[in-house]
Amino acid sequence: MRSPNRLTGPFNAMLMVAALAAPSMTRAQAAAQAAAPPVDPPARVSVVKIASGRLAGLSDGVTSSWKAIPYAAPPVGPLRWRPPQKVQAWPGVRAADKVGALCQQKYNPTDNGVGPPPMSEDCLTLNVWAPVKAKRAPVMVWIHGGGYANGSGTAALYDGQALAKQGVVVVTLNYRLGRFGFFAHPALKASAPGEMIGNYGLMDVVAALSWVRDNIDRFGGDPAQVTIFGESAGGAAVNALMVSPIARDLFSKAVVQSGLGREGMASVDEASASGVAFAQQLGLQDASAAQLRGLSADAIVQAGDIEILKGQGPMLDGQLLTRTPAQAFALGLEAPAPYLIGWNSLEFPVPAALFEMSLSASPAFTAQAKANLKAAYPDAQTYSDHVFSDFIFVEPAVNLARLHARNGHPTYAYQFSVLADAAPKTFKGAPHATERPYVFKTLAASSWPLDARDAVLAETLSAYWTSFAKTGAPRAEAAPAWPRFEPLAAPIMDFTNSGPRAGAAPRPEALKALQALHP
């Protein structure tokens, strides 16, 4: 039997193309945002005491925030490529009024999903926003995207204040990225027999959720009502947590925004072979664990080029992950949590020719299968515009929604079709990641200017999200009822420029044809 990552090799190859095409702010937009007049800081200090010490955050009288809270020991020196360790208590009161460092990555100042410098391996921090008088409030924990290679929980795009004003406690977090977060090597395995290896970034997320369980009540949150939500790689991480036996008791609801769903995962042995090649690229022919941990952070970041990144990401380690999400959902082994999943209407406008080339090595993509697929679309232009996004995002999401609903669990699905007036006129639909400022109501951090109409849509979208965190069912005042997803009818909520509309999943015949191409 072929390994899972080989079964979906073309799928993963297309993810590489998608990652390179992700929209971000132009340099001019970034400069304009940086030049915006500073906002006067809140006048009040808010102090809380948690297990590791006291924290001094800020309050404006309506919400309070605490930032750069360490949830694990710095993963540096001998703790690099180790599971997250317990944070050491600090004396006195720790200032928690500014975000912490980014995790190591190739820094892109025009990416609005990345917070401000500096960068450091000492980056395992989280941020909390809460209503001032919160008591046992539902908690929403955000997992940022970025292909497991970039991004942060410190970006202004993910400021949790607006959501906190809607009665929830919001947590955003950093986790190790790239080779720091997803790396296996025989020397590391030999140095710590029996210890979990490889999925350090996901281990960090689990550690952050454990911190939430143990501490969030001090901020007015309810540890029994935790919703995990994430976008792109963050959404894929949510799916991974849905099927991880280790994370099962750390959350009660899940939201997946453009989170894939059919991606393959390497075994630890396969990831270790990639790790050996990576070390050899850096001049370590027969590396020891000490030599690997002695590499400079900059050398590791700079060596993470597109070839080395192949296969980078979560792996099947036999402990944190034993099956891919698609495999586990199909067997009914996922968490029985209320589940909200969706995609954007045109995630990546990749030419159909590139899609076909990526699948050329797949035995399922026969000439007849290709003909059947093209015939399933209403016309050649629709095929060209949508087939890539349908294969990577839409069909996998519909598949997971259908399986979760079939398994008897509350399931809701959506399509985000909003296209702002200021978006490039060449766009034919909502691109990847453009729903984020609507979810967080952080419109000023959008990749392009948003107007009053967008503000109304953001009110509605964020209301659906926070009500889901509160009740397990998405509702919004003066907005359409969101139908529960059913395996046969496949109803969804479509967020359009004129508001949300309940309807059916798009292009059902095309999705059926694409399903046949997945193993």
Automatic annotation (TrEMBL):
Keyword set includes Lyase: no
PROSITE patterns per the UniProt record, alphabetical: CARBOXYLESTERASE_B_1, CARBOXYLESTERASE_B_2, LIPASE_GDXG_HIS
GO molecular function terms listed in the Swiss-Prot or TrEMBL record: hydrolase activity
Protein EC: 3.1.1.-
Highest taxon of source: Bacteria
SUPFAM superfamilies referenced in this protein's UniProt entry, alphabetically: alpha/beta-Hydrolases
UniProt entry tagged with the keyword Hydrolase: yes
Domain Carboxylesterase type B: from-to ranges: 46-499
Signal peptide as annotated in the record: 1-30
Keywords, alphabetical: Hydrolase, Signal
PANTHER family in the cross-refs: CARBOXYLESTERASE (PTHR11559)
Similarity remark: Belongs to the 'GDXG' lipolytic enzyme family.
Name of the protein in question: Carboxylic ester hydrolase
Species of provenance: Caulobacter radicis
